[in-house]
Amino acid sequence: MPEHTDDGPIGPVDASLVPRYGGESTFARLPRLDQVSHADVALLGVPFDSGVSYRPGARFGPGHIRQSSRLLRPFDPALRAEPFAEQQVVDAGDVVCNPFDIKAAIEAIDLAASDLLGRGTKVVALGGDHTIALAMLRALARRHGPVAVLHFDAHLDTWETYFGEPYTHGTPFRRAAEEGLLDERRCAHVGIRGPLYSSLDLQQDEQLGFQVFTADDVEGRGAADVARGVRARLGDGPVYVSIDIDVLDPAHAPGTGTPEVGGLSSRELLVILRGLAGMEIVGADVVEVSPSYDHAEITGIAAANVAYTLLSLLALNSRPDSGG
Ligand SMILES: N=C(N)NCCCC(=O)O
Ligand SMILES: [Zn+2]
Ligand SMILES: [Zn+2]
């Protein structure tokens, strides 16, 4: 087990000494929050899926992503980063979310994230359905003011209500805009595709401040160029990165609740994420992993590597010369 040390960050359990398929299932076999004196970044499990409109099961996402993260290694060659050595990363366990009271669950998530932020710890939330992004944005906007949102998803998630209900996984970014949590000059969706309810969906989405990079844009322009477009849209200042795993094609992420054909490959998503190097990421989530629809951990492994790439980006920002 990792122990407190003054010699720098406590990393994952060494897979060359302890088999990686055994032992406690923290993210990447990292220490728990209670095993360190200070954490720079925490993975926060959010087992909540009472906001879904179709297939359930994302409440089991955090455990599945942790299990699927056992093969991650300490050095990220694509970003030339050591995400677990350059900063103290921990697993902060799971938020206790009331499955029968969505508002109360959002408040509990906000509180847990705010508590970590107050201790100087950045939060990468592992969902859970996309409702949880609203809670994260409330916590972040309280500290930073309105933030840019970079949203990877097949879906806009700026719809008005479902069954008259305002807090669902299809509505978090409309609620966030209404609450003044977003810097509406600096928001974007990436990976949008699939049937909508009406052409008004896109018009209203634009009015809320989002620029759309579709899945077809990724195919046509290429992932690296879409990353350049995103950087141009978001500019400087705090960014929240929200990653619905259904941005990936169902072939790359079958284990999700509202799958849409024609999505990104996991490689394309990773290329776009790496293209964000140097942007001021203040928080992030990886959501909508629903393990009972997964096969061979395809979706879980994708989500684990996406989270790992976010940690690498945060490691780059933590370097003394990064200005971040
Ligand atoms: N956030 C996700 N994954 N999906 C939203 C889809 C909402 C709908 O059923 O129209
Ligand atoms: Zn989605
Ligand atoms: Zn979504």
From TrEMBL:
<feature type="binding site">
    <location>
        <position position="155"/>
    </location>
    <ligand>
        <name>Mn(2+)</name>
    </ligand>
</feature>
<feature type="binding site">
    <location>
        <position position="246"/>
    </location>
    <ligand>
        <name>Mn(2+)</name>
    </ligand>
</feature>
<keyword id="KW-0378">Hydrolase</keyword>
<feature type="binding site">
    <location>
        <position position="157"/>
    </location>
    <ligand>
        <name>Mn(2+)</name>
    </ligand>
</feature>
<dbReference type="Pfam" id="PF00491">
    <property type="entry name" value="Arginase"/>
</dbReference>
<dbReference type="GO" id="GO:0046872">
    <property type="term" value="F:metal ion binding"/>
</dbReference>
<keyword id="KW-0479">Metal-binding</keyword>
<dbReference type="InterPro" id="IPR020855">
    <property type="entry name" value="Ureohydrolase_Mn_BS"/>
</dbReference>
<dbReference type="InterPro" id="IPR023696">
    <property type="entry name" value="Ureohydrolase_dom_sf"/>
</dbReference>
<dbReference type="InterPro" id="IPR006035">
    <property type="entry name" value="Ureohydrolase"/>
</dbReference>
<dbReference type="GO" id="GO:0008783">
    <property type="term" value="F:agmatinase activity"/>
</dbReference>
<feature type="binding site">
    <location>
        <position position="244"/>
    </location>
    <ligand>
        <name>Mn(2+)</name>
    </ligand>
</feature>
<comment type="similarity">
    <text>Belongs to the arginase family. Agmatinase subfamily.</text>
</comment>
<feature type="binding site">
    <location>
        <position position="153"/>
    </location>
    <ligand>
        <name>Mn(2+)</name>
    </ligand>
</feature>
<dbReference type="GO" id="GO:0033389">
    <property type="term" value="P:putrescine biosynthetic process from arginine, via agmatine"/>
</dbReference>
<protein>
    <submittedName>
        <fullName>Agmatinase</fullName>
    </submittedName>
</protein>
<feature type="binding site">
    <location>
        <position position="130"/>
    </location>
    <ligand>
        <name>Mn(2+)</name>
    </ligand>
</feature>
<keyword id="KW-0464">Manganese</keyword>
<dbReference type="InterPro" id="IPR005925">
    <property type="entry name" value="Agmatinase-rel"/>
</dbReference>
